[in-house]
Amino acid sequence: MKYFLSIAYLTFIINLSSCTTYRYIYAASPANEPYFTQKGESKLTGYYSSSSHNRVSNEFADGIDLQSAYAIGNQWALTAGYYNRRERDGFSSFYNFYDTSTINYKRNLFDIGGGYFVPLNIKKDIVFNLFGGMAFGKFSLKDNGIDKNLSAYSRYHDSRITKYYLQPAINFMPGQYVRFSFITKFSFVHYGDIATSYTPEELQYFSLSRIKNKTISFFEPSLNLQLGLPEYPWIKLDAVLSATSQPLDNGTNYTGNEVVRLKSRGSNASIGLSFDFSKMKRRK
After folding, report:
1. Phi-psi region of 262 (alpha: psi -120 to 50; beta: other; left: phi over 0)
2. How is the chain split into domains, by residue range?
3. Quick one: pLDDT at residue 206?
4. Which parts of the chain fold into alpha helices (H)?
5. According to the model, what pLDDT value does residue 149 have?
6. Which CA distances in Å does 160 have to 127, 177, 194?
7. Pick from 142, 261, 254: which is nearest to 211 by CA?
8. Residues 6 or more apart from 37 whose CB is under 8 A from it?
9. CATH says 2-283 is which class?
10. Which residues, 6 or more positions from 163, have their beta carbon under 8 angstroms from its beta carbon?
């Protein structure tokens, strides 16, 4: 019996030791993808976005996205947007020291950009877009948990964010009331002006020391679908499935036996309404 209990206890410890406590340094978002074919068209879209929601554990990753765009020419457009996320995760694991944490994240970004759109056929129902831009904001986390001495602790980690992105896409508009787009996006996120109350040992343990004054790249594909009604050509139901890769560079991969605890929140679903006020004017 003692032998059995010893094996069970050892297995329990090994399983706990194998758990990895991650810190999420990025989260997926819907791409700002207008369906423009000519000068004067506009876009104003509001989304509710969610990556996960667990009522039992009170974990969530929700937010809003506001996007706008305007065609200043028959092939050129300007874009702007706002990205907001509120997230909560809970962890419990053994690795080097005991770590039980409830982590609350806040993310805010404002972006501006512009780009080029060109029809690929005579009907103008297949359009290639190439947009780019930059965003500014702040990512913050608050970590409440138990440290290596089994004492309660509270930590924070704030980063000023500067983001650059390039976004190629192809839009398909087979009918007046149905359109969809396949979007790729390459983002380069710089984490600067970091303020934190984590100790140097904790920063190293959670791999947060790896992002200080570094630029991390992410690949972000999206699928966008819009549905409209004949009576209201200026409004569309807008749905997006978004994803993002894990951090791609700057030493965030595994090296030797080291465990890297940096991750991105890789998927996101968004639902909202999109308005084109130029079509409202035409209807009048």
Report:
1. beta
2. 2-283
3. 86
4. 2-18, 200-205, 277-283
5. 72
6. 35, 41, 7
7. 261
8. 117, 119, 124, 127, 173
9. mainly beta
10. 109, 111, 134, 135, 136, 137, 187, 188, 189, 190
Write the CA distances from 242 to 38, 99, 182, 229, integer angstroms.
Answer: 27, 31, 10, 25
How far is it, in rounded angstroms, from Cα 101 to Cα 144? 5
Residues with Cβ within 8 Å of residue 254, at least 6 apart in sequence: 260
Q: What's the CA gap between 104 and 154, in Å, rounded?
A: 11
Please say whether the beta carbons of 72 and 106 come within 8 A: no
Chain segment 28-59, per-residue pLDDT in tens: 999 999 999 999 999 999 999 998 766 655 78
Q: Is 73 helix (H, G, I), strand (E, B) or coil?
A: coil
Residue 143 tokens read as 């970590």
Q: Low-confidence residues of the chain, pLDDT below 50?
A: 1-19, 94-98, 251-254, 284
What's the alpha-carbon Rg for the chain, to the nearest Å? 22
In the block, residue with structure tokens 């989260």: 27
The answer to whether 143 and 101 are in contact (CB under 8 A) is yes
The sign of the CA dihedral 158, 162, 167, 171 is positive
How far is residue 252's CA from residue 263's CA, in Å, rounded to a whole number?
9
**Which two three-digit tokens encode residue 108?**
């805010």
Q: Which of 44, 104, 46 is nearest to 70 (CA)?
A: 44
β-strand partners of 112: 80, 134
